[in-house]
Amino acid sequence: MNWYKKAQHIYEGFKVVGFNQGSNQFYSIYDKSPYDVSIGKEVRDPNGFYLGSTKQFCTDYYICMTEDDHDEYILTFSYGDEDLMSGEPNNPNTEVLVSRGTITGMERVDKEGLC
Questions:
Q1: What pTM was computed for the model?
Q2: Measured between alpha carbons, how far is 65 from 115 in angstroms, rounded to an integer?
Q3: Domain-wise residue ranges, the chain
Q4: DSSP, res 83
């Protein structure tokens, strides 16, 4: 019996989504499709989905990509080594491609002065 456990790294990644108050719906800023946002929800995509390696990276590159009257949120995901398809999670200025991640937090972005 193997008593050694492989060391597991848990990483955080970040994704910007829009929120339409009129329809009370979160949506992808990539293709405007509805996005189910629930803390604890596991998101899976066999083709992978992109996450920014830091909140600052997402703020710098993805904020202000929605309608002026729509809110934006940064979602925090956690994922492990086995979920990482490409990218370097420890690089602060990049994206990673993951097959699975769990939403662990969300934060409304104040677009004032950013757009």
A1: 0.86
A2: 9
A3: 10-109
A4: G
